[in-house]
Specification:
Number of helices: 5
Mean pLDDT: 93
Shape: globular
Bound molecules: fe (ii) ion
Number of domains: 1
Helix content: over 70%
Order of helices and strands: HHHHH
Strand content: under 5%
Number of strands: 0
Largest sheet: none
């Protein structure tokens, strides 16, 4: 069983490969799968990760607000992409990829190591189990 941090990093790898798939195929179907993956990942982080950030880290309240703000931007992008096609969609996804890469790098290089240091393995596994149950309750796209 993975920890919450390993699970979120796996999500990041999936999101990165969906961006690659979009760049190779440029199809709205892949853009939609990417959008669904991003929104689900953002929901999981907001429901399970940021509450931990708020309680475990010094300045966690501010960090969680900033991260949620990044997510709002991503969700706006995804909503806009749903009505966009062709070159405009390419441009939108190119911009989105830049923002998402910055956000994922911040989490992996700064936030996750700090959480891993402060939280015990039992908590990290327990949250992962709850995330898994949450994901299983989501409708399959
Ligand atoms: Fe993330």
């Amino acid at each position: 069983m993975a920890t919450i941090i390993q699970m979120l990093m796996d999500d990041h790898r999936i999101i990165t490969s969906l961006f690659d798939d979009y760049e190779a195929s440029r199809t709205p179907e892949v853009a939609m799968r990417l959008g669904d993956a991003l929104v689900l990942h953002a929901c999981v982080e907001e429901a399970f990760l940021y509450p931990l950030v708020r309680t475990a880290l010094v300045g966690g309240q501010r960090l969680a607000y900033e991260a949620e703000d990044d997510h709002e931007k991503v969700k706006d992008f995804v909503a806009e992409a749903e009505d966009t096609r062709g070159d405009a969609l390419d441009e939108l996804i190119f911009e989105l990829r830049y923002d998402v890469d910055v956000h994922m790098r911040w989490e992996e290089e700064d936030l996750f190591p700090r959480l891993a240091e402060l939280l015990d393995e039992v908590t990290l596994h327990d949250v992962a189990r709850r995330v898994l149950a949450f994901k299983r309750r989501q409708p399959v796209a």
